Batch of 2 targets.
Target 1
Amino acid sequence: MDKQTIASSAAIPPIGPYSPGLAVGDFVFVSGQVPLDREGKIVDIIAPDQARTSLENMRAQLAEVGLGMDAMVKTTVFLADMNDFAAVNEVYAESFTEPYPARSTVQVARLPKDVRVEIEGIAVRG
């Protein structure tokens, strides 16, 4: 099995021992993207803005292998507070068109660097 690491210089570097993205065959797995800049600093405070930055980081990872957000088939949105769901959902809708990716959204006890939003996904080439 041939695996290709994806690490866009336009997105955040990994903050642990993992690949920001991994291409395996026709599948591209994008690790959870959080609202950090290249120096690892949180760039937004409110959840919708954090979601927008997380999605921009995801877009950068996909662009590294020549894909756009339309290649995304499954996402998982992690929220520190489910009360942010509606506002994050509005921002999320700006990044995708129909047919939308399948999605799960869960509230978690805590996210890396105490951010409010993290988004991961699976894309397909072709």
Target 2
Amino acid sequence: MLLLRIVLVLHLSLLTAYTAIVIGNHGLTLFPVFLGDMMAMAWPGQFNFDFIGFLILSALWTAWRNNFSPLGLLLGVVAFFGGMMFLSIYVLILSLGARDIQDILLGSAARPG
């Protein structure tokens, strides 16, 4: 569990620094660039389309793990738009109260009864 936490904190730190540099150099123009790359039907767009699949999976897992409750649905939306910036924090917080990886992945579904 310690290794997972180290990886999450390291990735979150590097991603935050990288994001800050990109915002400083290019502003908050993510969506036009992201969607423009997809509309161009080239490799950057293919990567973005593939990445959307991971965002959808992350959002669905987050909502499912929270039993599709109102909070779970809200967290799912945040997971979709927040990407790894959200997911690294979310999984890190979950890991602090978890006995094992099964608790993190399954939540209440992992508990009998």
